């Protein structure tokens, strides 16, 4: 996928996830979550090149200072990822985030080990993590799951789960709680959308 199509996809994803977004220009100029994701993509590419690991970390720290969002350059982030409001979001080095995921402010995808292993969470496609939630350790959250605000998740959960509480307990997501999947084909580049 070309860079302009990917940027367009990110902008459309932000507009679909945030009803307060009035225009593409506004999204590009003021959405710190989008800025953090774009910066992460550059840092992640740098991270894959051995002599550029330190500059990748520097870029991620500069981005953290500007946006309040810290994404380690080693983290794997899927397509159409959206961070709403963003301040205080932390995503660790071995975290994996699937396509169409969304995080709210204050979310931590953190580790629980000091070992050089997979120590951060894996979120399946379409996972939503509520404000202030902590997902800790190498747990896996199945696709189309939702983590409630301020939940602390320390155990894996199957697809279509709702996780709430401290520590979080999961239950099957009811039909009316499912959010519709977005058709990526709807992200066609239309200049009229920039107004």
UniProtKB/TrEMBL annotation:
Catalytic activity: L-serine + acetyl-CoA = O-acetyl-L-serine + CoA
A Pfam family reported for this protein in Swiss-Prot or TrEMBL: Hexapep
InterPro entries: Hexapep, LbH_SAT, Ser_AcTrfase_N_sf, Ser_O-AcTrfase, Serine_acetyltransferase, Trimer_LpxA-like_sf
GO terms classed as biological process: cysteine biosynthetic process from serine
GO molecular function: serine O-acetyltransferase activity
Gene3D superfamilies attached to this UniProt entry: Hexapeptide repeat proteins, serine acetyltransferase, domain 1
Keywords: Acyltransferase, Amino-acid biosynthesis, Cysteine biosynthesis, Transferase
Keyword Repressor assigned: no
Gene Ontology, cellular component aspect: cytoplasm
EC numbers on record: 2.3.1.30
Pathway(s) served: Amino-acid biosynthesis; L-cysteine biosynthesis; L-cysteine from L-serine: step 1/2
Family: Belongs to the transferase hexapeptide repeat family.
Protein name: Serine acetyltransferase
Organism: Nesterenkonia xinjiangensis
């Amino acid at each position: 996928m070309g860079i302009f199509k990917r940027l367009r996809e990110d902008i459309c994803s932000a507009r679909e996830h945030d009803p307060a977004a009035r225009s593409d220009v506004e999204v590009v100029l003021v959405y710190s979550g989008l800025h953090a994701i774009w910066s992460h993509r550059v840092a992640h590419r740098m991270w894959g090149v051995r002599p550029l690991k330190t500059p990748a970390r520097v870029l991620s720290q500069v981005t953290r200072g500007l946006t309040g969002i810290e994404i380690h350059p080693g983290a794997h982030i899927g397509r159409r990822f959206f961070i709403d409001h963003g301040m205080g979001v932390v995503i660790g080095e071995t975290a994996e985030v699937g396509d169409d995921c969304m995080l709210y402010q204050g979310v931590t995808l953190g580790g629980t080990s000091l070992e050089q292993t997979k120590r951060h969470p894996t979120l399946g496609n379409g996972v939503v993590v509520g404000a202030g939630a902590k997902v800790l350790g190498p747990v896996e959250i199945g696709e189309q799951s939702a983590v409630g605000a301020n939940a602390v998740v320390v155990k894996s959960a199957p697809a279509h789960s709702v996780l709430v509480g401290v520590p979080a307990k999961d239950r099957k997501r009811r039909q009316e709680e499912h959010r519709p999947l977005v058709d990526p084909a709807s992200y066609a580049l239309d200049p009229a959308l920039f107004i």
